Amino acid sequence: MTETVGAASGRGKRSTAKTGKQAGLTVERLYTTPGVHPYDEVTWERRDVVMTNWRDGTVNFEQRGVEFPDFWSINATNIVTSKYFRGAAGSPQRESSLRQLIDRVVGVYHRAGLEHGYFATDEDADVFAQELTWMLLHQVFSFNSPVWFNVGTSSPQQVSACFILAVDDTMESILNWYREEGLIFKGGSGAGLNLSRIRSSKELLSSGGTASGPVSFMRGADASAGTIKSGGATRRAAKMVVLDVDHPDIEEFVATKAKEEAKIRVLRDAGFDMDLGGSDITSVQYQNANNSVRVTEEFMRAVESDSEFGLRARMTGEVIDRVPAKKLFRTIAQAAWECADPGIQYDSTINDWHTCPESGRISASNPCSEYMHLDNSSCNLASLNLLKFLGDDGQFDAARFQKAVELIITAMDISICFADFPTEPIADTTRKFRQLGIGYANLGALLMATGHAYDSEGGQALAASITSLMTGAAYKRSAELAGVVGPYEGYARNAEAHQRVMRKHAAANDDVRTFAASAPVHKLATKVWQESLAVGARNGWRNAQASVLAPTGTIGLMMDCDTTGIEPDLALVKFKKLVGGGSMQIVNQTVPRALAKLGYQDEQIEAIVEYVGEHGHVIDAPGLRQEHYEVFDCAMGERSIAPMGHVRMMAAVQPFLSGAISKTVNMPEEATVEDVEKIYMEGWKLGLKALAIYRDNCKVGQPLSAGKEARKTETAEAAAPVVVESRPVRRRLPKKRPSQTVSFTVGGAEGYLTAGSYPDNGLGEIFVKLGKQGSTLAGVMDAFSMSISVGLQYGIPLEFYVSKFSNLRFEPAGMTDDPDVRIATSVLDYLFRRLALDHLPYEKRAELGIFSAEERSAQVAATDYGAGFGEVDMEGLRSSVGAAPAEKEAEPTGSAAPAPVEVGSSTELLELRLGKAADAPLCMTCGTKMRPAGSCYLCEGCGSTSGCS
């Protein structure tokens, strides 16, 4: 698509003389047609976006009459409209068309490219903008979320989603860490950092006292992260905390989250059977960060040889303690087995692939562990939809893929020219090193569609070849850009190291074992790497790094991808929203495509697809050969991919990435600590940069059952006789009384409500325990509970309290796990609504407007909304104005069925089929069960993520 020219071509008006470099890029057309705008090649339609909480029907977002191409799914339409359109809701200034969104973003890239001398002529810049527009319009790729949020608006032009901070062993630096992290969370992004410079609790301060150690400072940062919600939204902040394995406090660090998880279990299982103000009820800490241990080659070899390993003082570097390496490694694996933390980052491997070692070591990563580079830096991401490059002949179009990568990496580099950053140190480092992270999504779908098992040599070879081609093409374009607008500022100092890493990538490419499907891709990758080395030797490179594999959560839904990042398919049957409203469960469209690739006839494909639609798996499907079962293995389900299969796929692509891979290796509940050790050891041997595991049900998560056995509480006060007086009389509860305990979550805060009653009925006391709040708040809630209890015993009616405390608004607020009270404006709002439902008669609750889910359903069923209005035009009431009716959505025979009313997402559909719960949180926006995306969670309903953009 593009090539560097040595002199102005004379086309259009030009001007890059100010750069002092070559004249600029000549841009050739790849997708577009001269004289035809990309918007004129598609059919547009108007749709209404009304997003509701599927559990209680409340409207979360509404915008009617938005404009999208007819081939965009309803889900992608909903997510782009609600997440990325800018302007006040309901105002004429709010964007209402995909055209406006794309033009807003592409226009800035176009102008910045011209201004900074990237193109040979104005015409080349115009072709660049049209190609970018076409690819975004047709879901070929997407920029990361901050680009869509900020570019072309009045907000700061923040384009990066990934940040790495730095903290030194001074109180000023530690407090600045809290501040910088807060600013990044406020902007909707996440950050990571390494705390290993902070001296340990075994070292002395200059004043003579003992240092408190990094773990103590993690508490403050954790509380800050739990308070500041990303971008003012409902999700919590995303962060990564790293500690070197030779830090003297490493064992305390490893145990932090495991101890807190054990605490949660004890509180849950004990049912809070303890006195008011009990000292054993404390806040649950360290829950807002991913923790990782940085292990070195020296440590891993010590584990292999079962020798001792030295822990070093932070200030002097001397060994102050020695521990058995194998025992420490077991401690790390044990903690990960118990609560999924900490993960592992292989420090020696990471820094062996570092392009800029003269400017500093790589000591940390972003929250999802894919971006790894210098401290105080950031990375702009973009991801390609791999399935868009699969031709009708079943072949991957490598040449088109290369050209697309070159154009996208050009746009990504241009973004650094106009980008804003949350802090000046981050701005300075990013502008000097220009780190980029191009990646992809839909790998799992691509492999299945081409007839490859995810855990197979052929599948891994194809993934490796595509990844190698992507990074090779990105660096080739980076070298060409260096000839036009200059290499990155830090290149001169790091030229030798950067060239060494480029040769390592090229050498790894030569080691890939190819198969029929991957051979053409690998052949082109080899050619591109040789060109990259040659051009780079002459010009240097424009970017210190080029590629990562991110979770691609929200943008994956924007591109209508079946799978995110490097992940395999979640399951063969999925949940799909329809144009005319409602939903269907459908068999993944890659299944019939894979069957055709494997040589099955139309009649066989129809029968197999119908079987999969009914059973959710391919075992015993009619006519399907057993040797083909593995092609349809998924992340979950009857035939799930083995943990080591995930590790092998990561190892296949890691040598061709500048950064790392956001992915969690799922392990079955019955996996052992030894299995975790094996995974972490193999990750090191296979050359991974980072690795995290998750064992099913290792976390308590959100308690969804309120059916615990009622506990009995005794008071130290004897029952007093009732005396007639002219003043209020306290009617004390007897020593033994019936009570009921309800567990609840409100906006992610977990707690328990115990209500004690008089034997002859009537509420007489409440105890409220919050499991994830600070000790001060726990004390306040204890005092509040006693106050309400005394009031009830003095005869204050419960309905009075309900009227006063319901609808109070303060944090935490949001989704609850109670089907009768789905959304609460505060913890007190939830508590008194729950008390009203449990202890007030229907008549009094009706006056207060408080009903159970069953009562609300009965009211709706008893109401004839159509009475008195004559015939209703149901077609005119469709939620999609002007859109094709749902019946026109073509699905293969037997592939679709009405979605069960009990589910609202693919994860919940899978739970229904498997008969067991998946370890995934509920979306705080729309209430559906989220699904894994890299090391995060993604909501299919509204596009919200658990932390990664």
Automatic annotation (TrEMBL):
One BP term from GO: DNA biosynthetic process
Source domain of life: Bacteria
Cofactor annotation: adenosylcob(III)alamin
Alphabetical list of SUPFAM superfamilies matching this protein: PFL-like glycyl radical enzymes
Catalytic reactions on record: a 2'-deoxyribonucleoside 5'-diphosphate + [thioredoxin]-disulfide + H2O = a ribonucleoside 5'-diphosphate + [thioredoxin]-dithiol
Record's keyword terms, sorted: Cobalamin, Cobalt, Disulfide bond, DNA synthesis, Nucleotide-binding, Oxidoreductase
Function comment: Catalyzes the reduction of ribonucleotides to deoxyribonucleotides. May function to provide a pool of deoxyribonucleotide precursors for DNA repair during oxygen limitation and/or for immediate growth after restoration of oxygen.
EC number, as in UniProt: 1.17.4.1
Family the entry assigns: Belongs to the ribonucleoside diphosphate reductase class-2 family.
Transmembrane segments: none
Coiled-coil regions listed: none
Domain TSCPD as annotated: residue spans: 734-837
Enzymatic class: oxidoreductase
Keyword NAD attributed: no
GO molecular function: cobalamin binding; cobalt ion binding; nucleotide binding; ribonucleoside-diphosphate reductase activity, thioredoxin disulfide as acceptor
Domain Ribonucleotide reductase class II vitamin B12-dependent N-terminal: start-end pairs: 49-139
Organism of origin: Pseudonocardia cypriaca
InterPro entries: RdRp_reductase_class-2, RNR_2_N, RNR_lg_C, RNR_NrdJ/NrdZ, TSCPD_dom
Keyword Disulfide bond: yes
Protein name: Vitamin B12-dependent ribonucleotide reductase
Disordered, as annotated region: 1-22, 881-902
